[in-house]
Amino acid sequence: MNRLKELRQKKGDTQEVVAKAMGVTRRGYQKWENEESQIKPEKAQQLADYFGVSVGYLLGYDEVPKELIDELELQLDNVLTPTEKEDLENNPELRNHYLSIVRNRLLYNQRKEVEKTEQAFDKDFIKFIEKYSIYLSDDQIEQIKDLMKTMSNINNRYLMVAMAGGYFEQMKSEKENEFKELFKYSKIWQENYSTMEYNEKNNIK
Q1: CA triplet 76, 195, 184: central angle to 5 degrees?
Q2: Euclidean distance between CA atoms 205 and 202, whole angstroms
Q3: CA-to-CA distance for 44 and 57, rounded, in angstroms?
Q4: Which of 24, 111, 156, 163 could serve as a FRET partner for 187 with CA atoms 20 to 30 Å apart?
């Protein structure tokens, strides 16, 4: 299956935006995304260039996106076993295969870190409701935790889109209004904003 929907959502674009960039109707683009019609070679290349990936990755043939290859290359020595390194050295044609293995192992490690973070969050949340004598049923506890995590993801994606687009004035407005407290307690977003501010002052695009 092609990765159009995955890539579009990652980029933060709507179907209308991508369709316009490709010079097709929204319905025409929907047919590509839903695999109701085949993507012609020239359009596949245009889409791949738009999302910054290879045509093979876009169409679901390759496992490793182009922009990750350099990063994965740096991780080969750290992630592969001695036997795998030897096999790669003797069979360089297997490089893409081993890059996919490295990517999968890194993703697995990331998932484990996320699980640890979620477990820590769950414990802290229980401590919080104990401290303030908040009486909730098991279902309510799960609903509130899910809502908090969902809101966190939505807000993070929203800010990431603004940052990736270089919309400094929008980010400045959010920092002074809707997300004033977040920019105070989140070191990550303090650093992101500082970077955007520096780039804006120095006209770095």
Answers
A1: 110
A2: 9
A3: 11
A4: 111
Write down the residue that tokens 């909730």 correspond to: 136
CA distance 27 to 35: 12
Q: Distance from first CA to last CA of the chain, Å, rounded? A: 35
Measured CA to CA, the distance from residue 64 to residue 47 in angstroms comes to 17
Q: What is the pLDDT of residues 69-117, one digit of tens each?
A: 777 788 888 989 999 899 889 988 777 777 777 877 876 787 788 788 8
pTM above 0.85, yes or no: no
Contact present, 23 and 29 (Cβ < 8 Å) = no
Tokens of 126: 């229980």
Q: Are 175 and 167 in contact (CB under 8 A)?
A: no
Helix-then-strand count for the chain, H and E: 12, 0
Alpha-carbon distance values, 199 to 33, 159, 186 (Å): 35, 17, 20
